[in-house]
């Protein structure tokens, strides 16, 4: 599995840790970031996992060129499954098509509620009693695709977007490894 990140990579770290036991159903062979300064790169290196940076900025608006470069790195590492974990790039149909059924994402809301950004502020503004996170197969729309699992957390009276985000993130760290373990144990995502 490759984990794609743009930032702190706490979900990525949870996935690497879950892959440590010898009988774990997946192995993290690569952590790839589109940002050279993503904090998660050092986190992955400290855990002995190979890292790669495919910086999108020198390519300007050429999304296709960036994705071709990403694809080349994924293929070079023999990747079978791609886990997006705070990867802040919109994907084109080309890359999504390449990984159809083998690319998953985690999103900090109870999809189909609140795709996109600022999910916690939107949940609070709506007066929701609960929030949560979702893992889904990646399809062409933003945060769209068949759901693989969700976790729910309560919204508390004094919550701010930051406090709610922290509670949801803790749930993400449990949900993502569990869903991916089930996914891989079931043989989904396996290349022929
Ligand atoms: C998580 O909340 C994830 O659901 C969202 O971005 C955040 C990434 O956090 N897509 P981290 O980089 O895994 O710490």
From TrEMBL:
Pathway: Purine metabolism; IMP biosynthesis via de novo pathway; N(2)-formyl-N(1)-(5-phospho-D-ribosyl)glycinamide from N(1)-(5-phospho-D-ribosyl)glycinamide (10-formyl THF route): step 1/1
Catalytic site positions: 107
GO cellular component terms attached to this protein's record: cytosol
Family annotation (InterPro entries): Formyl_transf_N, Formyl_transf_N_sf, GART, GART_AS
Alphabetical keyword list: Purine biosynthesis, Transferase
One MF term in the entry's GO annotations: phosphoribosylglycinamide formyltransferase activity
Reported function: Catalyzes the transfer of a formyl group from 10-formyltetrahydrofolate to 5-phospho-ribosyl-glycinamide (GAR), producing 5-phospho-ribosyl-N-formylglycinamide (FGAR) and tetrahydrofolate.
Protein name: Phosphoribosylglycinamide formyltransferase
Gene expressing this chain: purN
């Amino acid at each position: 599995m490759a984990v794609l990140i743009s930032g702190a990579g706490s979900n990525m770290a949870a996935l690497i840790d879950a892959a440590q036991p010898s009988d774990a159903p997946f192995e993290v062979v690569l952590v790839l970031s589109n940002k050279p300064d993503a904090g998660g790169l050092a986190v992955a290196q400290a855990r002995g996992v190979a890292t790669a940076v495919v910086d999108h900025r020198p390519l300007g608006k050429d999304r296709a060129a960036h994705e071709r470069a990403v694809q080349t790195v994924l293929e070079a590492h023999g990747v079978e499954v791609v886990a997006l974990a705070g990867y802040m790039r919109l994907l084109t149909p080309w890359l999504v098509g390449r990984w159809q059924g083998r690319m998953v994402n985690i999103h900090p809301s109870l999809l189909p509620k609140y795709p996109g950004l600022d999910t916690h502020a939107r949940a609070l503004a709506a007066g929701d009693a609960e929030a949560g996170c979702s893992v889904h197969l990646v399809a062409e729309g933003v945060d769209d695709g068949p759901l693989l699992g969700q976790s729910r957390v309560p919204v508390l009276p004094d919550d701010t977007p930051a406090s709610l985000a922290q509670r949801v993130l803790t749930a993400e760290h449990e949900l993502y490894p569990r869903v991916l373990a089930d996914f891989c144990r079931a043989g989904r995502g396996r290349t022929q």
